[in-house]
């Protein structure tokens, strides 16, 4: 049996002390979550992001030991309150599979997990096994990109998917008519996931180039980057080099309040063509001057 000790309110200034005591006590794992839905994006290098108020969940394999640790903590921190509950073991792989269901984008594009038969076999179906890489279509930024691709004229275009994750955008672009796509990422697991998903979708290897940023070939019609604000800012000149004059740049991965900052940063080299907002996240479409 496993037992979870939950501390509902832990201020930032006592977090290190409490988690250190739990670690010394031999807890199986410690999970930190935000109590007040306070987002933390792109923490400074070398720092550990924590919130002002945290929820701590510590896992033990003995209920009596969990109760003893809670009592010890309350002696040192009288304000601390906590609960202990038994954790019912689950088939986590099956649970995660159940959460990933077929999704439709636009009129005729479906993203379907590899273990489910596509609802519409005559549609453009992208079959996906995300593995350890980001990108199932469920996140608002991925959804924004997929909706954009579903309505864009992609026939015979050369495309770059920068930050390809699972390969979902790269494979979608090819299935919607792109001539060639370069799927780029810094994460080896993402490149492996993209390779695997390309095979599932029977993508011809000559049409999909997968690799690290140093392999990118220039003269592309479209570059799509679903990454965070910081990299989007630092990569502006790189994106300019990879696009043809008049080429299209689609970026997502930024919050709606970050839009004006990025537009200012990209002007006047790029001209804003379109802005879409979904669930506080944004997609911007630019044209290279």
Task: Give a verbal description of the structure.
With 289 residues, the chain is an alpha/beta fold. It folds into 2 domains: 2-89, Alpha-Beta Plaits; 135-288, Vaccinia Virus protein VP39 (Rossmann fold), CATH 3.40.50. The protein has 9 helices and 14 strands. Strand 5 (103-105) and strand 6 form a beta hairpin. It is elongated, with a radius of gyration of 23 Å.
What is the first-to-last residue Cα distance? 62 Å
Largest sheet: 7 strands, mixed
Give the spatial strand order of the biggest sheet: 10-9-8-11-12-14-13
CATH superfamily of the largest domain: Vaccinia Virus protein VP39
Mean pLDDT over the full residue set: 88
CATH topology of the largest domain: Rossmann fold
CATH architecture of the largest domain: 3-Layer(aba) Sandwich
Poorly predicted residue ranges: 38-49
Domain module tally:
2
What would CATH call the class of the largest domain?
Answer: Alpha Beta
Alpha-beta content class: alpha/beta
What portion of residues is helical? 25-40%
Question: Strand-and-helix sequence, N→C?
Answer: EHEEHEHEEEHEHEHEEHHEHEE
The count of strands amounts to 14
Number of helices: 9
Query: What overall form do the CA principal axes indicate?
Result: elongated
């Amino acid at each position: 049996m496993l037992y979870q000790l939950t501390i509902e309110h832990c201020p930032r200034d006592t977090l290190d002390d409490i988690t250190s005591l739990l670690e010394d006590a031999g807890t199986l794992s410690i999970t930190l979550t935000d109590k007040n839905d306070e987002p933390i994006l792109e923490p400074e290098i070398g720092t550990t992001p924590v919130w002002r108020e945290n929820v701590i969940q510590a896992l033990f394999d003995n209920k009596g030991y969990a109760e003893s640790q809670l009592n010890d903590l309350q002696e040192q921190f009288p304000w601390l309150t906590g609960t202990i509950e038994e954790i019912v073991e689950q088939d986590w792989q099956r649970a995660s599979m159940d959460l990933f269901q077929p999704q439709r984008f636009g009129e005729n594009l479906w993203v379907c997990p590899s273990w489910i038969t596509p609802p519409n076999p005559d549609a453009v179906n992208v079959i996906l096994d995300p593995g350890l890489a980001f990108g199932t279509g469920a996140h608002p930024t991925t959804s924004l990109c997929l909706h954009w691709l579903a309505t864009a004229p992609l026939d015979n275009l050369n495309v770059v998917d920068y930050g390809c994750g699972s390969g979902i955008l790269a494979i979608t672009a090819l299935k919607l008519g792109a001539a060639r796509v370069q799927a780029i990422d810094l994460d080896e697991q993402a490149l492996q996931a993209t390779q695997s998903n390309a095979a599932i979708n029977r993508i011809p290897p000559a049409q999909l180039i997968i690799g690290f940023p140093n392999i990118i070939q220039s003269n592309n019609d479209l570059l799509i980057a679903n990454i965070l604000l910081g990299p989007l800012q630092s990569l502006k000149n790189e994106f300019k080099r990879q696009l043809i004059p008049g080429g299209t740049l689609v970026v997502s991965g930024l919050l709606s309040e970050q839009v004006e900052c990025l537009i200012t940063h990209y002007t006047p080299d790029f001209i804003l063509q379109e802005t879409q907002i979904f669930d506080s996240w944004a997609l911007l479409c630019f044209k290279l001057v």
